[in-house]
Amino acid sequence: xxxxxxxxxxxxxxxxxxxxxxxxxxxxxxxxxxxxxxxxxxxxxxxxxxxxxxxxxxxxxxxxxxxxxxxxxxxxxxxxxxxxxxxxxxxxxxxxxxxxxxxxxxxxxxxxxxxxxxxxxxxxx
Length: 125
Hints:
Layout: H1 3-10, H2 14-22, E1 29-30, E2 36-37, H3 40-54, H4 59-70, H5 74-124
Antiparallel strand pairs: 1-2
Helix pairs in contact: 1-3, 4-5
């Protein structure tokens, strides 16, 4: 199938597919005129790549996980699980930092509201 059909069937843009190829996440064969051609398997692969992106993984991390898909083995599976655990830990740390930042903002907002109320009370007198 050609790139437009793959994009339509996988629910992504043609631009995304070209990016996936640039990053080494997806490969195609080329016709004599240079048109990209994909297989039925590539629909599933693009859907899988999209799920990994939705989980917050980078292209570099996804490339590290693909051997588990392309050449399943216990070693590749163990490596993929370890890499995903590292990403989960990174996300957990980021969530903790975001919560800390949100809590600090809540404190600033409470201070600003209290100050605003003091100003209103002073103006009323």
